[in-house]
Every structure is written in structure tokens, then in C-alpha cells.
Specification:
alpha+beta; 12 helices; five-stranded mixed beta sheet; single chain; two-stranded antiparallel sheet
């Protein structure tokens, strides 16, 4: 693995170094650095922002750190952008949305439980009426008494049938409402795993997909490779053409990588946005050399295209990316596999960009 820290980790470490003069446990430096960030940004010290700063200063979330540092440098880190970063990098569902869904689900369940309880009361009353009339019929000797008992039973039966119709209608309505709530919950959960810009899995979705892919590869005795992709000079491109064009570029690269991954590794391939201008590609069934060749072909195809602005056809130039590829080992965890791909990506960047490097293997 490449030694040393990546640039965004260096900046995070510099922030901590400014606050290490007080002694005590080394971890206390990060608390003071977080306090300084709150003071610098003027953001309220809520748990969501605190967690984001904690991850950033730990140096373990490079894509998050790049975006957050850019916002800090430009003085545009707001509470809304904090939540957007959390959705992209941590897969957060908006708390208010989830609370509303939970409350609606609880309300629907309570209403249905209440109606079922009233339905049971109706049935008990009907049973009692039947039992009473049955006793009267058994004791009755006159036709008049029997006719009156039959009329009372008919009325009780009509009341019960009407109650049953109401209950059936209310259960159908409750079932429909429950179905809609489940759809909304499923949509919220899907949103928590999906990058809103590209429609691809986000960091959380990728973490889940990588765990599944590793388990399946181990069970089948098949190889699994992952590629970490970073668009070269994306910030410069973004600054020149604007964020709207930058967003289109991210969508374009994501779609290109996803299509190429499916062509080479089949429908089991997964491509997601890891954060910022980074993408992660899971290539089940491909060993290291095959995966590296597939990603290099995808890089070459992208580099040979000239991007044009849709509104007027103006050339935006060529776009290239760098990538690092690593293959699953028997003792790997998703984190160690990712770290080796990350190290290979960093080596490709240091070597001049626009290239794909495999991980370093033991001699």
C-alpha cells in the first residue's frame, strides 16, 4: 500500500495539529478541532454535524473530506449542505420524513386495532342475541311468540350484516393505506441507499452490496474485484463550466461505468457513487488482471470521447479518470479490500492520472 496520507487527510490532520498543545489523551485533539470547525462555520453543535466533522477529521472518508474542505474554503458550509453530505456519504433518511412515516404507520395500526375491537364487540352482542332468542324459541308454544322471535332475529342479523360490511370496507381502506405507507417506507429506505444525483447506489448502498458480493464470491469460490474510480481534474472542470455541467458529467461517468461493468461482469456488477467525483465498481467473477483490463478499456473509451454542451454544442473537451483495482483475498473484509483499491487509485493519480493501476501484490 502507498505510504503517507492523501491530501484531504493531510488537511484534516493539519486541523488537528493546531489543537494538540493541551496534553491529555491524543483523541482530545479531535474534539478541539471539531469545536474550532463549529466556531468557524457558525453551525449549531447538533449530533448530525458533529458526526460529519468527526469522520472528516479522522481521515477515513476522503471523498467526504474533499467536498467538505471545498465548502469550508469557500465559506459555504450550511446546515442544508451538511444534511446533503450526510445523505450522499452516509445514506441518511431525513429525520422528519421518517418520523412522519412512523407516526402514520402507528396511527393506521391503532385505528385498525380499534375497529377490530369494535367488530369483536358486535359479534359478541350478536351471539348473545342469538342465544337469548334461542332460549325463547325453545320455550315458546304459540305461533305469535315464534313469529316475534324470528322478526327479532332478522333485525339482529341485518344489523350484524351491516356491521360486517362496514368492517370489511374499513379493513380494505386500512389495507390500502398500509400498502401506501409500506411503499413510502420502502421508497425512503431505497433513497437512503441511492445517490440522488446519479441514481446509483451511494456509500451506504455500496457497503451493503460489497458485503453481499464478498459472501457470494466466497460461497461460490469465484473471484471478486473492486475498482475505485476518480474523475481527473474534476474541480477544475467544475469551476470552468459550472456546477450544473459538473452534475451532468457525474451522471455521464456513472452511466458509462455502470454500462461497461455490466458488459464485462454481467448483471451482478454494481456501480455506485462513493462520494464527490469518486465511483466504486464491483466486478464479480473477474480476477485482478481481467478487472484491470476491463476498467482500462472503460477509461480508454471515455478518454476518446469529446463532451459537448447540449444547449449549444460547445465542446467541453475530453474527460478522463484514474482507477485503482483490488481483488478479494481469503482474509479480506470490505474495508481492507477497499483500502487496497484506494491505495492503487492514489498510485495512479501520483503517476500522472488517466490510467488504471492494479493493487500491489506480494512478490
Amino acid at each position: 500500500m502507498e505510504q503517507g496520507l492523501r491530501p484531504e487527510a493531510v488537511r484534516a490532520a493539519d486541523r488537528q495539529a493546531d489543537w494538540q498543545g493541551h496534553g491529555g489523551h491524543p483523541g482530545l485533539a479531535r474534539y478541539d478541532a471539531i469545536r474550532a470547525l463549529f466556531a468557524e462555520t457558525g453551525l449549531p453543535p447538533d449530533p448530525q454535524t458533529y458526526e460529519l466533522f468527526w469522520l472528516h477529521l479522522g481521515g477515513g472518508a476522503p471523498a467526504l473530506s474533499r467536498e467538505l474542505e471545498a465548502m469550508l474554503d469557500e465559506g459555504r458550509l450550511t446546515a442544508e449542505r451538511v444534511m446533503a453530505l450526510r445523505r450522499i456519504h452516509l445514506g441518511d433518511i431525513a429525520g422528519a420524513e421518517m418520523m412522519a412515516l412512523v407516526e402514520a404507520t402507528q396511527g393506521s395500526a391503532l385505528q385498525l386495532a380499534d375497529r377490530l375491537s369494535r367488530g369483536q364487540s358486535d359479534i359478541r352482542a350478536y351471539d348473545e342475541r342469538i342465544a337469548a332468542e334461542d332460549s325463547l324459541i325453545a320455550a315458546s308454544l304459540t305461533a305469535q311468540a315464534l313469529a316475534e322471535a324470528v322478526q327479532r332475529l332478522r333485525r339482529a342479523n341485518a344489523v350484524m350484516m351491516a356491521a360486517n360490511r362496514r368492517l370489511a370496507a374499513e379493513i380494505r381502506a386500512a389495507s390500502h393505506q398500509t400498502g401506501r405507507l409500506l411503499d413510502r417506507l420502502e421508497s425512503a429506505e431505497r433513497s437512503a441507499r441511492t445517490d440522488p444525483l446519479t441514481g446509483l447506489p451511494n456509500r451506504r448502498g455500496l457497503a451493503e452490496a460489497m458485503k453481499r458480493a464478498a459472501v457470494q464470491a466466497d460461497a461460490r469460490g469465484a473471484p471478486l474485484s473492486v475498482a475505485l474510480v476518480d474523475i481527473d481534474h474534476f474541480k477544475r472542470f467544475n469551476d470552468q463550466w459550472g456546477h450544473a455541467i459538473g452534475d451532468e458529467v457525474l451522471r455521464c461517468v456513472g452511466a458509462h461505468l455502470a454500462a461497461r461493468a455490466r458488459e464485462t461482469a454481467g448483471e451482478g456488477a454494481v456501480t455506485g457513487r462513493h462520494g464527490g467525483e469518486e465511483f466504486l465498481v464491483l466486478l464479480p467473477g473477474l480476477a485482478l488482471a481481467e478487472a484491470t483490463a476491463a476498467m482500462d478499456q472503460a477509461r480508454d473509451l471515455m478518454a476518446r470521447q469529446i463532451l459537448r454542451r447540449a444547449s449549444d454544442g460547445v465542446s467541453l473537451g475530453r474527460l478522463c479518470f484514474s482507477a485503482g483495482v483490488a481483488a478479494l483475498r481469503p482474509d479480506d473484509s470490505p474495508d481492507t479490500l477497499f483500502d487496497r483499491a484506494d491505495a492503487a487509485l492514489y498510485a495512479a493519480k501520483r503517476a500522472g492520472r488517466d490510467r488504471v493501476y492494479p493493487e500491489r501484490t506480494a512478490e
